[in-house]
């Protein structure tokens, strides 16, 4: 066994409520992104690229699309005889619904999965983060400092609409000690924002889960880490690369639009650390004689006859003759009719926009069309 072998645990549903209709029929982890990816691809790829080959995904509800996407883990090199990928569905408890309220309660569902693994460390992560992180560096710092827990954070600006899903850390600059943890703080400007990524020793985490279960605790942050400030050796690890935390519909729209920047794509998709996803073999994009495309990402299988400007277009979408779409996210198999006009619109999968329809949102409040809708 490697001395620094780690087990990965991902929470796929932890941020469903903040994305509203986007997660009405799917988990946060299976939210589409960037023309061909799902949000969970970034967490899984970061773990695989960091030699974490045992990964459990804790689910709660609406996880059919997640299972369809990740399958047995073949796309991530996780379809293995030993270890690999495992889906951990909701647990049965005295609560008839079996629905957990927080990460600590959710981890009781993974107790046996954790206990049977021979890893020495456990990496806990959510699926709301778009980033490509070398977790080996985080684990090595955790080992070197002998920390009780190491929490990954990034210095970034906090906006009012994101406060609902934000945790801010107080960090002692010289020692990286965590001296404060604040939930949903009334703050502005640059802050140390927790990226919902943490490292524990396995035996420490097992004790936390056991104690939490016996005391009826359900929140890792409120019941363990916040009370441990000044008592436990809590360390912060600053991530300085590109990241975008999905904490609202506005931030989801912005994250997709940022992909149109070459510098962002270069930082997020380096050749030595690829982002893996489910592969679909489709034909290249077909452009009509009058098609006009500028500053857009268009996936395989699309048919473009109209004008596309500053858009992210997913696989199999069709843009009709005379149609214009600007600053839009067009998901898989959406059909946009002839002479339609869309600006600042997010269409979910299998949407039909009829001929000559006009839909206009705003950059800070894009119009969202639910999956399978007819407009």
TrEMBL record:
GO terms for biological process: glycogen biosynthetic process. Keywords: Glycogen biosynthesis, Nucleotidyltransferase, Transferase. Its EC number is 2.7.7.27. Residues 290-362 form the Glucose-1-phosphate adenylyltransferase/Bifunctional protein GlmU-like C-terminal hexapeptide domain. Pfam families: Hexapep_GlmU (PF24894), NTP_transferase (PF00483). It comes from the Bacteria. It is an enzyme of class 2 (transferase). One of its GO terms (molecular function) is glucose-1-phosphate adenylyltransferase activity. SUPFAM superfamilies: Nucleotide-diphospho-sugar transferases, Trimeric LpxA-like enzymes. InterPro entries: ADP-Glc_PPase, GlgDAde_trans, GlmU/GlgC-like_hexapep, NTP_transferase_dom, Nucleotide-diphossugar_trans, Trimer_LpxA-like_sf. Belongs to the bacterial/plant glucose-1-phosphate adenylyltransferase family. This is Glucose-1-phosphate adenylyltransferase subunit GlgD. The gene is glgD.
């Amino acid at each position: 066994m490697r001395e620094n072998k780690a087990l990965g645990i991902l929470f796929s549903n932890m941020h469903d409520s903040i994305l509203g209709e986007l997660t009405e029929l799917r988990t946060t982890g299976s939210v589409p992104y960037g023309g061909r990816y799902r949000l969970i691809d970034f967490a899984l790829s970061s773990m695989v690229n960091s030699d974490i080959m045992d990964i459990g995904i804790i689910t709660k509800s609406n996880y059919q699309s997640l299972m369809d996407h990740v399958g047995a883990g073949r796309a991530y090199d996780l379809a293995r005889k030993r270890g690999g990928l495992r889906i951990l569905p909701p647990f049965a408890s005295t609560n008839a619904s079996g629905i957990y309220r927080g990460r600590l309660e959710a981890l009781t569902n993974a107790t046996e999965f954790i206990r049977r693994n021979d890893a020495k460390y456990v990496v806990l992560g959510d699926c709301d983060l778009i980033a490509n992180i070398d977790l080996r560096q985080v684990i090595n710092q955790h080992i070197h400092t002998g920390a009780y827990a190491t929490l990954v954070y990034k210095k970034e600006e906090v906006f009012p609409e994101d406060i609902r899903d934000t945790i801010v850390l107080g960090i002692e600059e010289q020692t990286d000690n965590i001296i404060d943890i604040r939930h949903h703080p009334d703050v502005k400007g640059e802050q140390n924002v927790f990226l919902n990524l943490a490292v524990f020793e396995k035996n420490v985490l097992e004790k936390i889960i056991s104690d939490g279960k016996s005391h009826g605790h359900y929140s890792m942050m409120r019941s363990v880490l916040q009370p441990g400030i000044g008592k436990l050796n809590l360390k912060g690890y600053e991530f300085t690369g590109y990241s975008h935390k999905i904490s609202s519909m506005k931030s989801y729209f912005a994250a997709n639009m940022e992909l149109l920047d070459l510098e962002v794509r270069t930082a997020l998709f380096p050749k030595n650390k690829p982002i893996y996803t489910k592969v679909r073999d489709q034909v290249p994009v077909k452009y009509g004689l009058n098609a006009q495309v500028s500053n857009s990402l268009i996936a395989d299988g699309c048919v473009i006859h109209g004008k596309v400007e500053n858009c992210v277009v997913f696989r199999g979408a069709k843009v009709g003759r005379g149609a214009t779409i600007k600053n839009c996210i067009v998901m898989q198999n959406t059909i946009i009719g002839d002479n339609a006009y869309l600006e600042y619109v997010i269409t979910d999968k299998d949407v039909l926009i009829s001929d000559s329809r006009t839909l206009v949102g705003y950059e800070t409040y894009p119009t969202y069309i639910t999956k399978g809708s007819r407009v």
